[in-house]
């Protein structure tokens, strides 16, 4: 595989796809991953079974639960993807990357079993999840590996990535993460793929990251900043970030509680507030940069464990968007046109 072969196509885990066939696409999800932190892994305390009686307390952080962050149940993922397809979703971007156990062959099995188009990410997550060996690498080393993951296959398989990311940043942004990001920008130039960035939990870091990668030569029209709806919560900062040209991803739809255990200083928005922030971007002329998703990466967000599932946007958010005055054309741009453009190689 090379850039000329990829140009004008979307690369899924089962092969190349005409962008027109993507349909309604979720731009940031996880199907198979292990997000336990090194600190969690040190605990030997057994986890309780997830039940209707304790699910909310687990989700709220009242009951510690390590296995909540392990999504290794391929059979359940197949059912969940089937449910999503039944309510209108046809494609999904799966951004499990280095540090939380990507499973390319598992993603391929899920796609083949359900007919859902799955675009796989590559590269490395935040510093906390990395090894000392990786911290000794140079940007050129990461660029070479990421390029190989797109052109040849990722994580010891022949399954090829179709997007770079989510490339992880903590706050403060570490030197190791900056080297990974430099390598990712180099790989973006080499492959023509879009770059997705996981920003640290600080309201000013997304703009700093965007300005930095632009200096490094990133294609800003093919660079996405994820998790804005737990990071940049005021319209002024949102508009400054959008002015850099990056994709503006609101990917926590379905998390309706304001309490956010990873940053207790903020009040996380609910879906209604997310739509207000997106409307501010649209009114300012940034419709073509808006992307949405759920970022499901824990068991209690799956329907099998009482959660909203991957179909939430299609079942619940789309009617809410129409009730809030979003036009059919705007919804089509956000769910179909923008994903197709970002996922098409150039």
Topology record:
Elements: H1 3-6, E1 10-12, E2 15-17, E3 25-29, E4 33-34, H2 38-41, H3 55-60, E5 70-71, H4 74-86, E6 91-94, H5 104-114, E7 117-120, H6 132-135, H7 139-151, E8 164-168, H8 175-191, E9 195-198, H9 205-215, E10 223-225, H10 235-242, E11 247-250, H11 271-283, E12 290-292, H12 312-323, H13 328-343
Parallel strand pairs: 3-6, 6-7, 8-9, 9-10, 10-11, 11-12
Antiparallel strand pairs: 1-2, 4-5
Care to describe what's here?
The protein is α/β, with parallel strands linked by helices. The chain has a single domain (3-14, 26-35, 56-343), classed as Metal-dependent hydrolases (TIM Barrel). The chain has 13 helices and twelve strands. The strands form four sheets. Strands 8-9-10-11-12 form a five-stranded parallel β-sheet. It has a three-stranded parallel β-sheet with strand order 3-6-7, sandwiched between helices. It has a two-stranded antiparallel ribbon with strand order 1-2. β8, α8 and β9 (195-198) form a beta-alpha-beta unit. α4 (74-86) packs across α5 and α7 crosses α8 (175-191). The mean pLDDT is 97.
Fill in the keyword field for this structure.
346 residues, alpha/beta, TIM Barrel, five-stranded parallel beta sheet, three-stranded parallel beta sheet, 12 strands, globular
Explain briefly what this protein structure is:
This protein has 346 residues and is of the alpha/beta class. It is 38% helix and 12% strand. It has one domain: Metal-dependent hydrolases (TIM Barrel), CATH 3.20.20.
CATH class value: Alpha Beta
Second-tier CATH architecture: Alpha-Beta Barrel
Please state the oligomeric state of the protein chains shown: single chain
Overall pLDDT confidence: 97
* Rg calculated over all Cα atoms: 19 Å
CATH superfamily: Metal-dependent hydrolases
Placed side by side, the strands forming the largest sheet appear as 8-9-10-11-12
Helix/strand-derived category reads alpha/beta
Fraction of helical residues: 25-40%
Low-confidence stretches at least 5 residues in length (pLDDT < 50)?
none
Query: At the third CATH level, what is the topology name?
Result: TIM Barrel
Distance between the termini: 14 Å
Number of strands: 12
Reading the helices and strands in chain order gives: HEEEEHHEHEHEHHEHEHEHEHEHH
State the shape: globular
For the biggest sheet, the summary is: 5 strands, parallel
Tally of separate domains: 1
Strand content: 5-15%
Tally of alpha and pi helices:
13
């Amino acid at each position: 595989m090379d850039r000329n072969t990829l140009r004008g196509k979307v690369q899924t885990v089962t092969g190349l796809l005409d962008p027109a066939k993507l349909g309604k696409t979720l731009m940031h999800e996880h199907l198979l991953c292990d997000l336990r932190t090194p600190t969690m892994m040190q605990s030997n305390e057994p986890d309780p079974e997830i039940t209707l009686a304790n699910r909310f307390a687990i989700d709220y952080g009242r009951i510690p639960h390590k296995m909540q962050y392990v999504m290794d149940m391929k059979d359940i993922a197949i059912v969940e993807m089937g449910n999503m397809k039944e309510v209108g979703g046809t494609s999904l971007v799966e951004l499990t990357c280095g540090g939380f156990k990507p499973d390319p062959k598992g993603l391929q099995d899920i796609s083949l079993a359900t007919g859902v188009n799955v675009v796989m990410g590559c590269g490395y997550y935040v510093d906390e999840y990395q090894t000392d060996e990786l911290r000794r690498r140079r940007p050129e080393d990461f660029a070479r590996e990421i390029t190989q993951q797109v052109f040849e296959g990722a994580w010891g398989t022949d399954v090829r990535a179709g997007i770079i990311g989510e490339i992880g940043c903590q706050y403060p942004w570490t030197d190791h993460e900056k080297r990974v990001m430099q390598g990712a920008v180099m790989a973006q130039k080499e492959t023509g793929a879009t770059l997705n960035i996981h920003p640290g939990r600080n309201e000013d870091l997304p703009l700093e990251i965007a300005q930095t990668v632009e200096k490094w030569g990133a294609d800003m029209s093919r660079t996405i900043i994820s998790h804005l709806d737990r990071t940049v919560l005021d319209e002024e900062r949102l508009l400054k970030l959008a002015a850099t040209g990056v994709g503006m991803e609101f990917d926590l739809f379905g998390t309706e509680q304001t309490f956010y255990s990873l940053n207790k200083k903020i009040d996380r928005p609910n879906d209604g507030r997310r739509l207000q922030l997106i409307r501010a971007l649209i009114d300012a002329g940034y419709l073509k940069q808006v992307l949405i998703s759920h970022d499901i990466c824990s068991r209690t967000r799956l329907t099998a464990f009482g959660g909203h599932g991957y179909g939430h946007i299609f079942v619940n958010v789309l009617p809410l968007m129409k009730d809030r005055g979003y036009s059919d054309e705007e919804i089509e741009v956000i769910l179909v046109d923008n994903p197709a453009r970002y996922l098409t190689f150039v």
